[in-house]
Queue: 4 jobs
Job 1
Amino acid sequence: MTSQAAAAHAATTEDFSHNLAAVRQRINAAAASVGRDPSTVRLLPVTKTIPAERLRLAIAAGVDTLGENKVQEALAKHEEFKADYPHLRYAVIGPLQTNKAKFVAQFADEFHALDSLKLAETLQRRLEAEDRRLEVFIQVNTSGEESKSGIQASEAAALLEAIEPLDRLIPVGLMTMAANTTDEASIRASFRLLRGTLEELQAAGAPAQFTQLSMGMSGDFELAIQEGATVVRVGQGIFGARQYPTTA
């Protein structure tokens, strides 16, 4: 039950309302197919490469969180929108170098790619300086692909324990990207490994708020929901096919 990744290109608030409603309908159907309450699944719009003028239309249609892979692009959008849309949340969902942790600490509400104690400690220091806190997801490489970031599932318990003293970080769950394949069994295996890892950590005494599974994107979020996702990261399903700048 893999899904069509990209929606029609959205150019008006009405287009965005239509696309958002279509994605939410699919979320509801996927949840219902395994007896889950659809309200337990949060849609995280992925807004990378989307310019501000289009995002304003999407916000008018109901987008309330911006998910960005690159922290500097996310920071620029925060600066653009903070006066007009103070309610917006910002989620950094891509890998982060320690030298850019200072930017995340300034504005982000969520970070979905925590993969080392060094990065966690750097974020802690930066968040102390900003007097802020940050929800974090530990990223796990569940596919075995070298192109993907994240720690091994077997390392998650040690990292979660190591960041416990870092009081500016709020560990809320795990994140993964499924195997890059059209094979549904392989995709489900990635998601099941993440869910199993979460269950093991909870059984071992993880913090009470450590309940979230950030997994599933435009092409596979329905499978992710069936395997337990609580956050699905959807870009092209809302905005349409991404348009990258051309290079000479």
Job 2
Amino acid sequence: MDPAHHTPPAGQAHVLIAVKELGRAKSRLAGRLGPQERTALVLAMLRDTLAAAAGATGIAELTVITPDPVVARVARECGAGHYTDPAGEDLDRLNAVLRAAAADAQSSSGRGPVVALQGDLPCLRPHELSAALAAARAPRSLVVDHHGTGTAALIVLDPDADLDPRFGPDSARRHRLSGAAVLTGDWPGLRLDVDTAADLDAAVRLGPGAATAAELDRIGWPGITGADRRIHRS
């Protein structure tokens, strides 16, 4: 961890968010948004995700895992730590660096829970993450995304347990097969990660956070204007 890392109170959770290089981010939005717009949107969604996670009960520390210096700077501006991720495309590399960051957090975070959280959750509400953490009872639990195939959050309660991340295609099934329990709460903002234009439209309907709303307003995304930003952070 970088110097922003500190030791949180015992029993409080440490949230890990992995973000790839900005030049490779959100390629499935390329048909609607240019490179600079995608970059700005990724950073806006990260800011909203971090703000919501920071406001959740039971969360003591946030760390962004990234090889991108701009993402690392935004993480620090939002009060999060930074764990350096070597650049690369391989999903096993992503899972390996998540496992390494989780082990680092577990060794220095008061032996509390560790949460691997998606960084593109613009509609996340603090109470949703609080409720998911409170609902977790098994050593490892997951929150399935709104598509039913991905993993919005992976939670490990046992400080001696491996996070054992299985992110990548069909990760929800792979996490279930690895023994993680499925959490079934009504948490639409926690489940709504954004990869496609349809996901972004769904986020507009649900109500994004302030940073994402402002960026969508700037680029003129349909359904959101400066006079109509449905923002709910409680």
Job 3
Amino acid sequence: MEFRRLGRSGLSVSEIAYGNWLTHGSQVEEEQARACVKAALDAGVSTFDTADVYANTAAESVLGRSLAGQRRESLEICTKVFWPTGPGGPNDKGLSRKHIMESAHASLKRLGTDYIDLYQAHRFDHSVPLEETMVAFADLVRQGKVLYLGVSEWTAEQITRGAALARELRIPLVSNQPQYNMLWRVIEEQVVPACEREGMSQIVWSPIAQGVLTGKYRSGQAPPPGSRATDTNGGANFVKRFLSDDVLAGVERLRPLADQAGLSLAQLAVAWVLQNTNVASAIIGASRPEQVHENVKAAGVRLEADLMRAIDEALGDVVERDPRMTQSPR
């Protein structure tokens, strides 16, 4: 495993992070979830990402139990706040001071820890003054319950505003967590330059496009049993955007390029996002330990410029680049 600094902060994270969205507490039984976490730890992964909304808080609890007994100082535990949790009352969502404070304390209990390494705003809240949100985060930092702060799927303008307040409050806003992969590059034009100016890194989710970039889905064929596209708990909704015939044809054109590099398609996809110097870590999920073992091999891989150009040519027009696709609900 290799490690990168998160923005201009002193915090190092593993190039491959383990995330449990759509798996722990939902798609995967706890015994299997623990096996995947153990596989990640054995491979040198130190960064673990979750959120209170995943499986309506159950994912945090599973991760907390899976990491119990590990040396806390050797881990970077990351979670998020924004989406509705609990019974869905008016204060059970968003980035108000009340919801942030209550959510942070509940996450600490579920994760079985005294502090969160990286606490992230899961989306931008248009209904709450940004100053209220950032002051609440600042208080958690000053109380020692949160060490670093991040955002997720914020626009460049929102990141710039948040970073200005963070400087004023003297708190470490160090990362953004966007979707980013060969097929989804909407952060490249505006978000990445804004983060570079503000001293922030990307911790990216969906580096293999919900499994599409593994090559498991074939045009004209039913999705493999047990795959994300068959998950009725929400996974199918996220993967369907990548299942068009033209996208799947583009992925097929990547196969010889992966073979040429001596990588699986999944390893090529994860290695590709790590070529972006503003990316500190790529989050992988897994329903089986062998998926972890395969994907972590992308750490430290360097792709030649000719191969990067060939990937662009193979995918052609199926790549989504529109920066307007980064947005939060109103």
Job 4
Amino acid sequence: MSRSQLDTLIHMANQIAANNAHYGDDAAERVYTHLKKFWARSMKRQIVDYLQQDGSELSPLARQAIERLAQSQSETHSASA
């Protein structure tokens, strides 16, 4: 994956988070649900990898949602093993 593609994913995740921030306590879950439903598996894997390696460009809300996504992927992977 190129840095340009990663920058696009970071930007998109931060935009989704910003657009859902007004939901307060439910915001991170809404962002997580959006990513899970609408992002391709490869996009989800790339943004989770970025979070685990650095994640510094993610907003706090995007980071929280992507941490939940990583947890969900880990649970799914463990259940299918």
